[in-house]
Specification:
Layout lengths: L18 E3 L2 E3 L6 E5 L7 H14 L3 E5 L3 H13 L4 E4 L4 H9 L4 E4 L7 H14 L3 E6 L5 H9 L4 H22 L5 E6 L3 H14 L5 E2 L7 H17 L5 E2 L7 H14 L8 E4 L10 H17 L2 E3 L3 E5 L5 H7 L2 E5 L5 E5 L2 E6 L1 H14 L1 E3 L4
Parallel strand pairs: 3-4, 3-10, 4-5, 5-6, 6-7, 7-8, 9-10, 11-13, 13-14
Antiparallel strand pairs: 1-2, 12-17, 14-15, 15-16
Bound molecules: iron/sulfur cluster.
C-alpha cells in the first residue's frame, strides 16, 4: 500500500471510479489489490483470524469471509476488530445476514441482488450501505446466468462463449442498475466464468460500458497446477489491457497459494515490484550443477523472509546454469551465481566476481547475503 498504481506498459489504464474498502482504496489511481477468501468456519473467529493474519503476511490486502448464517454474521464483529485488513462479508439468499454483517463492522459486502429471498430486503441493505459508506460488490457468474438470455444471444448468431459473455455483462449491469436505483454508488463488479476466453470477453465488454471498479479473476479455476495458469492467463490479459482494480486467484487449495499467485501475476505484469526479481535459466545439457535445487532453495529463502515481514533490498538475483549466459546475467544482477564446468558456483555481487565456491558453501554465502540485505518492515 502507499505505492502509486503503476500503469502496465501494454495499455493505458481504464479510468475506474474510486471506492474504499475499509482502508484500502480500490479503483481510481490505486494499485491493484490482492484478495482472497478464508476457508475456515467464519463462526470460529479465532481460526478465521489466524488464517487472515497468515494471508496478510503473504500479501493479501482484502479478505472475504463466507456468512452463511446469523452466527457467522455475529462473528464478523470479533474478526473485524482484530483483522489487519478489510473484511468483506459474502452473502447469499438472506438480506438480514447482509444487514447483520454491516452492523457488525464488515468493510464491504458481496451479494447477488438477484438471489435475495425478499424483494424489500435489498432496499434495506442498500440504505444501510449508503448510510455507512459501505461498498457492495456485485457479481455475475456464468454458472447462474439466465439460460433464456444465453439462448437469445445464440439465436442472433453468437457462439455459446460469446453469448455467455454477453449474458454475464447484462446480468452484472442489471445488478448495478438495481443498486443504483436505491442510491448506491460505491459498487464493485465481478464477472466470473471458469473459462478464460469468456471471462476476458465479459470483462472487456463491461469495462467499456461502466466506470465501476472491477474485481477480476477466473472462477473455479481448479487445483493450483491448472488454476494458477488459467488465472495468470485470464487476469494477466486483463491487467495488461489496463482492466482490473482488485484480483483474486481462485484455487481449489490453500488460500495462501491464491495470494502468492496473485502477487506473482502482479509482478509479472509489472504492476508490483518483485523485490527481488529472481531470474533463473531453464537448464540444459550444459548444466553441471544442481541448478533446479539451487533456484528452488533461493526462492524458498526469499519467500520465507518475505513471509516474516521483511523487505529484501536486492533488486535482482540471478541463478544461472553455466558460462553461456550465466556470467552476463549474474553480473547484471545485484547477486548472481553461474555454474562452472567443474561443478563450482561462481558468485557475483554487484557486477564483480566474489569467487568460486563448492555448492553448499555457495548457497550459504547466498543465504547470508540475502539475510544481510533484508530489513524488517513490520505491519503495513
Ligand atoms: Fe543451459 Fe547455460 Fe543457458 Fe542455463 S545458462 S540454459 S545451463 S546454456
Amino acid at each position: 500500500q502507499g505505492q502509486k498504481r503503476r500503469r502496465p506498459m501494454a495499455a493505458s489504464r481504464r479510468n475506474s471510479r474510486l471506492i474504499r474498502v475499509g482502508a484500502v482504496a480500490v479503483g481510481g489511481d490505486s494499485p491493484v489489490s490482492i484478495q482472497s477468501m478464508t476457508n475456515t468456519d467464519t463462526r470460529d473467529a479465532a481460526a478465521t483470524l489466524n488464517q487472515i493474519r497468515a494471508l496478510h503476511r503473504l500479501g493479501c490486502q482484502i479478505i472475504r469471509v463466507a456468512v452463511p448464517d446469523p452466527a457467522a454474521a455475529a462473528a464478523i464483529r470479533a474478526i473485524r476488530a482484530e483483522s489487519p485488513i478489510p473484511v468483506v462479508a459474502d452473502i447469499h439468499f438472506d438480506y438480514r445476514l447482509a444487514l447483520a454483517a454491516m452492523e457488525n463492522g464488515a468493510d464491504a459486502i458481496r451479494l447477488n441482488p438477484g438471489n435475495l429471498n425478499d424483494e424489500g430486503g435489498l432496499e434495506q441493505v442498500a440504505a444501510l450501505a449508503v448510510e455507512r459508506g459501505i461498498p457492495i460488490r456485485v457479481g455475475a457468474n456464468s454458472g447462474s446466468v439466465r439460460t433464456a438470455l444465453v439462448r437469445r444471444y445464440q439465436s442472433r448468431g453468437m457462439s455459446r462463449d460469446e453469448a455467455v459473455a454477453e449474458a454475464l455483462v447484462d446480468s452484472a449491469l442489471e445488478q448495478c442498475r438495481l443498486l443504483e436505483s436505491f442510491g448506491v454508488t460505491q459498487i464493485k463488479a465481478a464477472l466470473k466464468s471458469s473459462s478464460v476466453p469468456v471471462t476476458v470477453a465479459a470483462y472487456r465488454k463491461f469495462a467499456a460500458r461502466t466506470d465501476y471498479p472491477l474485481h477480476i479473476g477466473v472462477t473455479e479455476a481448479g487445483t493450483p497446477a491448472r488454476g494458477v495458469i488459467k488465472s495468470a492467463v485470464g487476469i494477466g490479459t486483463l491487467l495488461m489491457e489496463g482492466i482490473g482494480d482488485t484480483l483474486r486467484v481462485s484455487l481449489t487449495g490453500d488460500p495462501a497459494e491464491e495470494v502468492i499467485a496473485g502477487r506473482r501475476i502482479l509482478e509479472a505484469c509489472g504492476l508490483r515490484d518483485a523485490m527481488p526479481e529472481i531470474i533463473s535459466c531453464p537448464t540444459c545439457g550444459r548444466t553441471e550443477i544442481d541448478l533446479i535445487g539451487l533456484a528452488e532453495k533461493v526462492e524458498e529463502l526469499v519467500a520465507d523472509i518475505k513471509e516474516s515481514g521483511h523487505d529484501i533490498k536486492l533488486r535482482k538475483v540471478a541463478v544461472m546454469g553455466c558460462a553461456v549466459n550465466g556470467p552476463g546475467e549474474a553480473r547484471d544482477a545485484d547477486l548472481g551465481v553461474a555454474g562452472s564446468r567443474n561443478g563450482k558456483l561462481v558468485i557475483f555481487k554487484f557486477g564483480k566476481v566474489v569467487g568460486a565456491f563448492d555448492p553448499d558453501a555457495g548457497f550459504e554465502y547466498f543465504k547470508l547475503e540475502i539475510l544481510k540485505n533484508s530489513t524488517r518492515t513490520g505491519e503495513d
